[in-house]
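With this grant's support, we have settled on a layout for protein records. One resulting record is reproduced below.
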Amino acid sequence: MESTSAASPPSRLSVGAPNAPDLLVPFARRAEELGFGGIWTQDTLSAANFSLDGLHVLSYLAAVTERLRLGIGVLYSGRRNPAVQARELATIDQLSGGRLTVGIGVGLAYHRENLAALGIRTDRPVRRLIEGIGVMRALWSQSRAASYDGEIYSFSGIGAQPEPVQRPGPPIWIGARAEPALRRAVRIADGWTGAAPVATDDFLQQLAFVQRELDEQGRDPSGFTVSKSVYVAVEKDEEEARRRLVPAFERAFGGNPVYDAATMTDRVAVFGPPDRCAEQLATLFDAGADELILYPLYDPAEQLEAFGELVPALAGAARP
């Protein structure tokens, strides 16, 4: 598909999908025309507002795109049986011709009350994360007769189909913030993805820790991807962007037990004219981020076009 933009953004620049059925196809096709590297959805445990299932959205988008990577950030370990999840993910990888990236994490503690109320096991979340990844990788790479021996999951001689297109399986990026979780990501994952509600300064500290861990664990940084989701609002000036963002954060995070919606605009968002946004995003690239996932919080179609204005400045910011 030929790009209609004057220039293409770095392939490491991706976008978050809108949460509106009628916008998904035109948004994804336009993102592909603009040259973005991927499109991402989110896994939601419970939501007061309208929310589509991220995996089903990726299946839908696989049929209407040709080049975009398809990512989900992040699946919460333990919510789905890992064998069932492995099959779902392998199916998306097949339908997309090998374009899937899998984000996964333990989730936040406040999610577990709802999960437990629904009869979903919430004990030993870290062990479920580690073994869940092990189960999926075993089923993907040993599809004829897979085996796995863990504390929670243990089996042998299990057949699994379909095989994913990507071998030995889709890349797995762990969502993490605390140092033990970041260390774990370096040890067992293909990458680490930082959450959008994390402020830039906090992310940069986490990134420095990850970079030290890569060195201490003897991992080649070129084989480990670092990404971050970012809430972005491109407007003619900062005040207009702030005026739009404050109620948007209230709609998205009002009443959330972890995040303070009233302070999120200035704490976590990148906003303002294109040059100011590009400068802030370039800071993340310069520090070592490999991919940035830009999420609009309002007017997604219009903001997608505005994100294209970041292209000239960011084209030189992404690392080769």
User: Anything to note?
Assistant: Residues 125-141 form the longest helix (17 residues).
